[in-house]
Every structure is written in structure tokens, then in C-alpha cells.
Amino acid sequence: MGTEDRAAATPTPVLVRGVRLPNGVQTDLLLRDGAIAAEGAGAVDDAVGADVIDASGLVALPGLVDLHTHLREPGREDAETVLTGSRGAALGGFTAVHAMANTEPVADTAGVVEQVWRLGRSAGYCDVRPVGAVTRGLGGEQLAELGAMADSAAQVRVFSDDGKCVDDPLLMRRALEYVKALGGVIAQHAQEPRLTVGAQLNEGVVSDRLGLTGWPAVAEEAIIARDCLLAEHVGARLHICHVSTKGSVRILRDAKSRGCQVTAEVTPHHLLLTDDLAENYDPIYKVNPPLRTAEDVAALREGLADGTIDCVATDHAPHPVEAKETEWCQAAMGMLGLETALSVVQHTMVDTGLMSWEAVAERMSHAPARIGRVADHGRPLRPGEPANLTLHDPAASRTVTSVGAPFASKSTNTPFAGMTLPGRGVATFLRGVPTVLDGNLT
Amino acid sequence: MTTPHLLSTGDLSREEALGILDTASEMARVGDRSVKKLPTLRGLTVVNLFFEDSTRTRTSFELAAKRLSADVINFSAKGSSVSKGESLKDTALTLQAMGADGIVIRHAASGAARRLATWAQGCVVNAGDGTHEHPTQALLDAYTIRERLGRLEGVRVAIVGDILHSRVARSNVFLLATLGVEVTVVAPPTLLPGTVASWPCAVSYDLDEVLPKSDVVMMLRVQSERMDDAFFPTAREYSRRYGLDDERLTRLADHAIVMHPGPMIRGMEISARIADSARSTITDQVTNGVSVRMAVLYLLLGGSAGEGGTP
Questions:
Q1: Phi first, then psi: what are they for A81, rounded to 5°?
Q2: What residues does A390 pair with on adjacent strands?
Q3: B92: contact with A, CB 8 A cutoff
Q4: B93 in contact with A at a CB cutoff of 8 Å?
Q5: A315 catalytic, yes or no?
């Protein structure tokens, strides 16, 4: 059933027993009427008629929020639809996702963003927040109707030409200034286009050896540095998509220390994978920005742990098989991310001792909701708050398969296929309604 | 050979590389016979799968396969199903279904040969993939050096020109280092990979300084399409700094040889006089190419041939 149907129905109350909150406290939670009705002893006392979930050993996290998802609809429904993508999101523990604007047609008008928003409501597995294009048709020349998108039913607050960089400095300045009036943020895909002509793989030892045109770190860093200066100059909010280099972390740290209103995200795959995986030219590892070096991975982990990088975002980028089973240079860039994100974060950040579950909640729920201005998500798990949450079993593990259950995505381009990752999503609730139970979609 | 394919010189051990060169020496004798043919690969099919035009390399492979009695199919992308949008994978599966035992592939995309090898069951020989590698060119270069100078160990080779985009340079650097050759790459910094310091070779920007210390000067083709991308200011300036003209020739030791993988631009990269001189190995390289490719096909495919016919 869709969200509207779910909203019309009265969900059965759910008592989540013995769950561990991000701060480590073990407690019971009663979900009723779309909200967290009670916690602890009071929850049990008040749970008459509720379904009971034994959550001992499980961690409860506020429903995850993704700032960077490609749902492909409209236009590339062969790769993903809003329905299949949002089902994947629910399996991954997400209750809200931002659908990127590079669809066909581009989400650069109120009509297209409302279409995506309505498809999300109809699917009902998570709140789908469309991202509006910064420039018309992602052309990088004229601003799209940012205000119309902000005022639409979709209430767009994040604007991005993701996949393309807004490289014209004057246009970027105007965009940053203009969205101030909308409470919006410009999410920049930082890629200096002239420095990345024909770029195929991180510029370094591996690209030089393989004869693939390099994507230099400085192409990302130069844009981040420039845009931080522009954001500071005009006093606007700037968000940097999928940060991938050590130098970018350094620039962000410096900008933040000066008071620049910049936030940033890192993808799970950039926290784990390195460019040497491309040794056999398997395009499953082809992504933009490219996989970098172990040194970059270490810096990204450190930056996420200390808050220089504000959040994890999946850059979930589904592609049909034929777009990947080809020569490296011709293959599409991107990889799936929604359904493995939390496991990869556990593997790289929690199990390594770099981050607590409380920090995971901040980086994967509170911060992205704050940056995207998503109401009712990224809220603390306490009475009175919306019942958007996910239950995760950190002690479990699973070997990722790229085809079929538990994957809901229409595409199979996951680099994690065959890897055993820790953690398993047990249940996800959207406004108190289960979208996932016992690891399966409802 | 221990690997079923020849995709990169980096995959070859010293013993394997020398084994190919020694086999090529045997194969060269076949070229001297009145009937230049061995029955070794009789009944086997070799497909020349050329997605890029290259008459020289294709003909060389064709001749090599035919001298070993293989059936040869030349598959050109132009006018084929590829031009109608067929993928490399489908092409590979089609060739496999037709029973191709060996596939020689030339492709504009780096890594295409390695990708093909994951889909096709036959042996794959990389005949040049993008800016990655051209292993048989490096093998024939090594063969030619050994033939002319009598040894490889300790020989000093300067590779001059567009190292960054050259599959010939990549294959040569790694193969020659494996064989104990001291390689120096010479180019303007814009035409060198950023991580060239990690390669098993020395690096210089100064051709004049390197020439007197070289036993072999290997000139690379200047790819004119690079000129618009500011890799160097003008062809004239490039030629002055990195071209091998008659004056520079005097800096070379008497025994030193000059190589070029062809096709060459006379006058710009290399003077016509040098190209035609006794120092030049350009025509030897073409001749040796057939022997080396015979050796590669023999070693990769010969094991499965039913009949004898060792060279």
C-alpha cells in the first residue's frame, strides 16, 4: 500500500522490546499513531494490543536519510523506478531519500519534481524528496526555476546538477545567493571539467599503468576551494557531494574553521574501496568521483569521524547490466548503495572503533535531515517524535549477492557482491508503519 | 606459457619472455625457407578482431597465423554488427560460438583485451588496446635489440616521445625492465605519466643529455591530435627539443641503433636520413614482428594442436 493508504489505515501499535538506543541505553519503545508514544517501563504498561518485537541485541537508529539517491524515474525506468528504489531504501533502513535531478526529463521544473514526489508517496516505502536541478536541463548556463520547485508540493530544498559540476563561478555565486531566500542549499558535484576531460579513473599509479585517463584529485579540490570561498563571500549554505580525496577533507576542515556554512557527504564505497580494484578493468568499480587511494580512504574515515564530513550519502546509481558489461571507457559510472550503506558504515567506521552508533545516527540521519530540511526525519528516538526508525542487528553478517533477495533494486551493479559485510537490517518503520519486518519488505 | 592469454607484458616472467624470444628465433628460420609454413596450428582458427584500423599489425598477425597453418578470419569492426551497436561481449560470444581458438584484438579502449578474455574461451592476444599496452610490439622490439646488439642485459634504451599516451612505451618499459634492460623515458613533463617515477625506468626531459649514454634510441610517433590540448606549444618546438635529427645523431655511440614502431613522421620525429640509415631497425622490426607473433601464437595455441610440427 502507498503512503496515503498507510496514512488512512490505523497501524497496529508496535512494542519494540529490549532495543539498544544509539547512546547505548537499552529500553522499550512503543510506536503508536505514527509516533513514538512511550519509552521504557511506560511503553510496556501502555502496550495493550500492540504487536511485540523482541529487539534484544538490536540497535535502533532514527530512520536513515539519504541526501543523494538516483531513482532514475522518469526516463530510465529500465534501471530503477521510484518504487523499486524506495523499496531498496527501506531495506537499507532509510525512511527518507533525496532523488537526484538528472532524470529524463531533468527535474528542473515544478512539474517534474512534483511527479517524483507523488510517485514516492504512492510507493509508500520512504519519503522521497526530489532534488531540483540548479540549471535548466543541467546545461550549466541558466538557473532553473528554483523558486517554483521550492514552492511546489515537493517543497524542494536541495538543488544540484549532480553528475555535472556548476563550473561557471558567476552562475554558482548567483545560485548560492538565490536559494538563501528559499531556505535551500546548493549541492555541488565538484569536478573541474577541463581537468577531467576523458577522465576514467583516479589519476595515479593505477590509471597510469592501465592507460586510463586520470581523474586528478585537484579537479575536485579546486572546485571545493572555490565554492567555499564563494559561499563565504555571499553567506550562503553550500553542500559538497561525495567527497573523495584527502585534500578535499583538508579544504573543508579549513573552511569550516573559518565559519563557512559548508557541509559535505561521503559515500560508503569511498570509505572502503580503492582504485587498485580496477586492475582488471571491471567497470563495476567505475564511479564518479572515482575510487581513490588507501590514503584518501583513511582521510575520509577520519574526516567523517571528526565531523569535517557531515554525513554519509549513498550516491545510489543503478544501471542496467548492459551499461556495465562493456569496455571500461564505455561503461556507465556508478554503483548501487542503498541496501548496503549501513553495513559498510558499520564495517568501516563502527567495527574499526572510529565511530559510535550515536555518531552513525548523527551522520546517517540527523545531519542529512538537517542539511536537506526534511521535517519529521532525523529526530531523536524519544516520546513525541515521529516513529521513523530502523532496527539493525550489528552481530549478524551477510554475504552480499547482486541478484534477487534481499536486493530490491532493478539493477545489480553492486561492487560488494560476494563480500561478507557485518550487520543486517531487521525492521524499518515509516511513521510507525513497518516497511520492513524480519529483513523482508512488508 | 603459464597464462592462457597475452594481455600485458607485466604478466610475463623473465623466463616466459625469453622463451618467446627464443621461440621467435626458431620461427625466423621458417621465414628463410622456400615453403614458409609449419603445420603446427592446422585445424585451429585465429580471428583477427580489429576495432581500429591497423594494416601493419593485422597483416603481421595474419601472416604469422597462416605460417603456422591456422585458419584466419579477419574481422573488421567497420561494416560489421559492431557498427550496428553490438557489444564487445556479444562479439566475443559470437566468436566463441563459431569456435575461435585464438582471438587477436586491437581496440581503442584500454583494457578491452582483458575484458574480452573474461568472456571468450579462446586465447586472447592483445594487439594494442587504447593507451594501455601493445605487448607483441614490445616483444618484437626486444627481439630486434637482442638480434642487433647480441644481448639485452645491461643494454641502455631511451624511449623518446609521447610516453603518456603510448601503449608501445608502456609495454616496452615493463618488458625491457623484466629483461634487465636499463630504460630511460624522455619526454616533456606534459607527455609523461604523473607517477612515472614508480615505473621501472629512469626519466629525463633532456634528449641531448641522454643520447650519448644510449645503446638504443626508440622514437615514438607524435600523435598530432595531442597538439590542440597544449601538451606542447607547436610541432616545430617539439621537433627541436625531442626530434631525432642529423645533428643529434652525432651524439650517439657508433654501435647505437635507432628504432621506431611506425608509422613515422619523417622530418618531425626522425630525419629521413636516419630512418633510411644502417642504424635504423625499422624494417627489421617489421620482419621480426612476424616471427614474434608466430612464437606467441605457437606458445599459446600450440599446446592444443593435435599434430606435431615443432619449428
A1: -125, 170
A2: A61, A428
A3: no
A4: no
A5: yes
User: With an 8 Å Cβ cutoff, are B112 and A327 in contact?
Assistant: yes
Q: Determine how β-strand A433-437 pairs with β-strand A440-441.
A: antiparallel
Q: Using a pLDDT cut of 90, give the percent of chain A over it.
A: 94
- Range A124-147 average pLDDT: 98
C-alpha distances in Å from residue A364, one per residue of A24, A294, B21 = 17, 23, 58
**Cis-peptide into A415, omega within 30 deg:** no
Checking DSSP bridges between strand A420-430 and strand A389-399, what pairing results, if any? Answer: antiparallel
pLDDT for the residue numbered B227? 65
**Interchain CB contact of B190 with A (< 8 Å):** no
- For position B275, what pLDDT does the model report? 84
Q: Which of B305, B302, B255 is nearest to B281 (CA)?
A: B255
Q: Which among A325, A326, A328 is the nearest to B110, CB-wise? A: A328
Answer whether B87 sits within 8 Å of A208, measured CB to CB.
no
**Does the complex come out with an ipTM higher than 0.90?**
no
Chain B: nearest CA to A340, how far in angstroms? 27
Within 10 angstroms of residue A48's Cβ, the number of other Cβ atoms is 7
- State the SS3 of chain B: CCCCCECCHHHCCHHHHHHHHHHHHHHHHHHCCCCCCCCCCCCCEEEEEECCCCHHHHHHHHHHHHHCCCEEEEEECCCCHHHHCCCHHHHHHHHHHCCCCEEEEEECCCCHHHHHHHHCCCEEEEEEECCCECHHHHHHHHHHHHHHHCCCCCCEEEEECCCCCCHHHHHHHHHHHHCCCEEEEECCHHHCCCCHHHCCCEEECCHHHHHHHCCEEEECCCCHHHHHHCCCCCHHHHHHHHCECHHHHCCCCCCCEEECCCCCCECCCECHHHHCCCCECHHHHHHHHHHHHHHHHHHHHHHHCCCCCCC
Distance of CA B33 to the CA centre of its chain: 25
Q: Report CB contact under 8 Å: A327, B133.
A: no
CB atoms within 10 A of CB A198: 10
CB-based contact (8 Å) between B89 and chain A? yes
Best mutation target among B7, B11, B114 (most A Cβ atoms within 10 Å) is B114
Task: Give the whole-angstrom CA distance, residue A267 versus residue A284.
Answer: 16
Name the catalytic one among A315, A351, A393, A438. A315
pLDDT tens across A326-379, in order? 999 999 999 999 999 999 999 999 999 999 999 999 999 999 999 999 999 999
Q: Kindly state the cell numbers that stand for B151.
A: 644481448
Strand partners, A187: A239
Using a CB-CB cut-off of 8 Å, the residues of chain A touching B112 are: 327
Report how far apart, in Å, the C-alpha atoms of A214 and of each of A38, A204, A210, A327, B174 are. Answer: 55, 7, 10, 16, 20
Q: Is A276 on the interface with B (CB under 8 A)?
A: no
List the single best residue of B9, B115, B166 to mutate versus A (max A Cβ within 10 A). Answer: B115
pLDDT at A276 over 90: yes
Q: What is the pTM of this model?
A: 0.93
Tell me whether residues B167 and A205 touch, CB distance under 8 A.
no
Q: Of B84, B2, B96, whose CA–CA distance to B49 is shortest?
A: B96
**Facing residue for A327 by CB, picked from B111, B170, B229:** B111
Residue-wise pLDDT for B212-250, tens only, equals 999 999 999 877 766 667 888 888 888 889 999 889 989
Number of other CB atoms surrounding residue B202 within 10 Å: 16
3-class DSSP state for residue A181? helix
B170 shares contact with chain A (CB less than 8 Å): yes
Q: Is A318 on the interface with B (CB under 8 A)?
A: no
| Segment A298-332, tens digit of pLDDT | 999 999 999 999 999 999 999 999 999 999 999 99
d(CA B214, CA A62): 68
Angle formed by the axes of helices B14-31 and B282-301, nearest 10°: 110
